[in-house]
C-alpha cells in the first residue's frame, strides 16, 4: 500500500480530529477530555532475531492508550507499515471501541514491523516469542494488565505462541491463559472468536439496513437480501463478513485482494474464489468475472454496500468522489482519511464507523477472557438443566392441550445452548444494542451530522463519566 510515516501521522491526527469534533457535543471539562485523548504508555523495542545465518533487528511496539479500565486490550499487527503513530492511532480506536460495546477494558495495540510473507513459520514463531518476552520484561502483558489479540497478519497460531511464552515465564499464575485472546480452542480459546469480527460487521450492517427511514434516504429497501456487496481484503475479517452477507442472500459483486480485484454483477461465491486463490496464487482470472489488475479500482465499482477490510487510508481525497456505494461499512480500522470522510458524507453515503462496526472481535475476546478467568466452558453448567426444563414444559403443554408436539419440534425446542450459541447470541445482542445507542445520538443530539461523530460521543460520554467518578490520584 506504500504508506509513509506522514500518512500514519495523519491517521493518528484524524482520530484526534474525530474526537475533537465529537467532544464539542459533550459536557466534559477540557482536562478530562485531554486525559481521555492521551496515550498513557508507549513501549518501543528493538530486538535481534537470527534469520537463516544472519541477525535481523526487529522493531516492535505496544501502546496502552487508556488505563481508565484495566486490562488494556487490542490486537497485534504484523505489517511493514507499523510505526509508533499507527499503533497509537489503533490503540486510541480500541479505547473508544470498548466503551461503545460496553466491554470493560482500556484500549491497547501492538505492532511488529515485518512482512510476515517473507518468513517461515519457525522464524515467525521466534519473532513472536521474543516479542512476548519483551512485553513480559516491561510488564506490558498479563490478564489484569494488557491482553493482546489477533489483528492484520496474525491469527490463532501467533496467539498460541504468546500464551505459551507468557505461561512459561509466569508458571504460578493460574489465570495465565487470560493473557491473550483469539487462541485456538485447545489452548483456552472460545468457540466463535475466529469469525467474530466478520460476523459483527454483518450484524452491524444488517441492523443499519433495518431502519426504513434511513434506507429510504439512500434509495434502498430494508434488509440484506438482494443488496450488491463489494469486500476488500479476504483475510480473517473480510472473508467471514463476505460469507455471512452471501448466506443472508446478498450478492457479492466484487472482491479485492492486494494483487488484484474481480467483479461480476451476477454475484461471486466467496468459497469458490478462495479455492481459486489457493490454486492460482491470486483472485484474478476467476471464471466469468471482470479483472482489475490495479486493486484500488475494485473499490470504485457499482454496489450498494462497500466493506473495506484490509488496511487504513484506502479511501482518500483522490478516489472518494468515485465511490459508488450507498453504504460504506468500515470493517478495517481507519479505511477512510478525514478528507474522504467529508466527501462521502457530502455525497449522502451512510458510513458505519470502525469504532462500532469492527468491535465484534473485542466483544468476543471479552467473552474469551471471562471464560479463562472462570476456568469453565460456556454452557457447561446450564445446557442439560435447560434441556430438562424445556422437556417438562412440553410435557405439561401436551397434557393440558391434549395435542402432541412433533418429534422435530420437540428436538428444536429442547436444545440447550452450546458455547458457540451463547457467543454468537451475545455478539448479536451487543452489535444491535450498540447500533441503537449510536443511532439514537445521531438522530436526537442537535448538530450531530454523521454516525462516526455519534459513535465518538457515545464513547466519550462513558469514558468521561468513568474518569470523573475515578477522581484524580493525588
Ligand atoms: P488479515 O491479515 O487476516 O487479512 C487482511 C487481508 O487483506 C489479507 O488477505 C491481505 O492479503 C489483504 N490485503 C492487504 N492489502 C490489501 C489491499 N491493498 N487490497 C486488498 N486486500 C489487501 O487481517 P484481518 O485480521 O482480517 O484485519 C483486517 C482489518 O480489520 C485491519 O484493519 C484490522 O485492524 C481490522 N480488524 C481486525 C480484527 C480481528 O479480529 N482480526 C478486529 C477488528 C479490526
From TrEMBL:
Q: Which domain of life is it from?
A: Bacteria
- Domain named Glutamate/phenylalanine/leucine/valine/L-tryptophan dehydrogenase C-terminal is located at 190-471
SMART domains referenced in this protein's UniProt entry, alphabetically: ELFV_dehydrog
Pfam families, per this entry?
A: ELFV_dehydrog, ELFV_dehydrog_N
Q: Cite the entry's keywords alphabetically.
A: Oxidoreductase
Q: Which InterPro entries match?
A: Aminoacid_DH-like_N_sf, Glu/Leu/Phe/Val/Trp_DH, Glu/Leu/Phe/Val/Trp_DH_C, Glu/Leu/Phe/Val/Trp_DH_dimer, Glu_DH, NAD(P)-bd_dom_sf, NAD_bind_Glu_DH
Q: Which family does it belong to?
A: Belongs to the Glu/Leu/Phe/Val dehydrogenases family.
> What is this protein called in UniProt?
Glutamate dehydrogenase
